[in-house]
Specification:
GO biological process, one term: proteolysis
GO molecular function: serine-type endopeptidase activity
CATH class of the largest domain: Mainly Beta
Keywords: Disulfide bond, Hydrolase, Protease, Serine protease, Signal, Zymogen
Radius of gyration: 23 Å
InterPro entries: Pept_S1_alpha_lytic, Pept_S1A_streptogrisin, Peptidase_S1_PA, Peptidase_S1_PA_chymotrypsin, TAT_signal, Trypsin_dom
CATH architecture of the largest domain: Beta Barrel
CATH topology of the largest domain: Thrombin, subunit H
Distance between the termini: 29 Å
Oligomer: single chain
Family: Belongs to the peptidase S1 family.
Number of domains: 3
């Protein structure tokens, strides 16, 4: 998947003052014949490093940028910019620059217009840096007058907004306790609990807590644990906010016999994360995710997402799935006034019961499963709460 490209270098020996002056002029002139995303000594990066660099450049250069994405083939960050001067600066910092038509302000204004004039249940939108447009998804429930309103609003922003259809229905991915999802495995009453296989890595397993992707139960709902964290030195875990709203207390078994913890903070809608403090303050809560094959993966840090990043998701209904980040700062309208902002959009599949489960890249935590459409048979779109935002808001630490 990783194809490295080597830039051929040619050395010209130029003598004389006139030639020196000519060379200086060439440096100052724009590269008129170059592709707008031509690399000027770009650095090869990991997806994590690309997200860090992209966030930094976006913050530093402000309105002169218009999003970024990670090109997996070349392993480089591609930064959208609005002028050649900024492009040169971006290239000097080790990224590829692409001069685009729509500025960050124009994309943001388009998103605001959609929120004001076409906030329709069953819709979602995010800025797509690959197309330099705001892409709106309308699920199968958006029909008739609602669909006409959406298309009319989008048509008024032609060149900035694109409307696409989703075959499924946008909904949060919590499940009924013990419910089965489609063709997935049955987590029910035998869901992993403390000390069970794939649920911890303690020396004897007796005091081990569940890890990311394991089933949790509360208020008649089944969700998935996201990431074990610490808060002021005490063990806790992150999951989805709509799960945290469903119950104040959570257990590791359907019958409710094995208590896990109590919700310390829950945010939904607007955001979608909850912090649950373990009832046993001495509980061993490994910073790991369940790979659903009897093994776990250690999580050592949290990372920002970037479009193009390859990710995996673990959940108590569908197990382990993988895919790619397709959008950032997404807004999704689940209906009933439940509108969530700032989400990560992906093509990773998920189903009811996977809510709150971890999305990760290597050993880095990236997101918490919120909701979406489709399933793991036909595919669909899934949205995730960024872990970095949840950690910042709660003060919890990971890894």
């Amino acid at each position: 998947m990783n194809h490295r490209r080597e830039n051929s270098k040619r050395t010209y020996v130029i003598a004389g003052a006139a030639a020196t002056a000519l060379a200086a002029a060439v440096i100052l002139l724009p590269h008129a014949n170059a592709s707008p995303d031509r690399a000027e000594g770009p650095a090869t990066l990991t997806a994590h490093a690309a997200a860090t660099l992209g966030s930094g450049l976006s913050s530093e250069l402000g309105g002169k940028t218009a999003g970024w994405y990670f090109d997996r083939d070349s392993e480089r960050l591609v930064m959208n910019v609005v002028d050649e001067e900024t492009a040169r600066e971006v290239r000097a910092r080790g990224a590829r620059a692409r001069v685009v038509e729509n500025s960050r302000a124009e994309l943001s204004a388009a998103a605001d217009t959609l929120a004001d004039e076409a906030s329709i249940p069953g819709t979602a939108w995010s800025a797509d840096p690959r197309t330099n447009r705001v892409v709106v998804l309308a699920d199968r429930t958006v029909t008739g007058a609602d669909l006409a309103t959406l298309r009319r609003t989008a048509d008024a922003m032609s060149g900035t907004v694109t409307v696409r259809r989703s075959r499924g229905e946008f909904t949060p991915f919590h499940g009924d306790d013990g419910a089965e999802g489609g063709d997935s495995t049955d987590p029910s009453a035998d869901a992993p609990g403390p000390g069970d296989g794939g649920s911890g890595s303690g020396s004897d397993g007796a005091d081990a807590a569940p890890v990311g992707g394991d089933a949790i139960f509360g208020g008649g709902s089944r969700c998935s644990l996201g990431f074990n964290v610490t808060l002021d030195g005490a063990p806790a875990f992150l999951t989805a906010g709509h799960c945290g709203n469903a119950s104040a207390t959570w257990t590791s078994d359907q019958a409710g016999a094995t208590a896990l913890g109590t919700v310390a903070e829950s945010r939904f809608p607007e955001a979608d994360f909850a912090l649950v403090a373990y009832d046993d303050t001495a509980a061993e809560a490994p910073s790991a995710v369940d790979l659903q094959d009897g093994t776990t993966r250690e999580i050592t840090s949290a990372a920002e997402a970037s479009v193009g990043m390859e990710v995996q998701r673990s959940g108590s209904t569908t197990g382990l799935s993988d895919g790619t980040v397709t959008g950032l700062d997404a807004t999704v309208n689940y209906g009933n006034g439940d509108i969530v902002n700032g989400l990560i959009q992906t093509d990773v599949c998920a189903e009811p019961g996977d809510s709150g489960g971890p999305m990760f890249a290597g050993d880095a935590a990236v997101g918490l499963t919120s909701g979406g459409s489709g399933d793991c048979t036909q595919g669909g779109e899934t949205f995730f709460q960024p872990v970095t935002a949840a950690l910042e808001a709660t003060g919890a630490e990971i890894g």
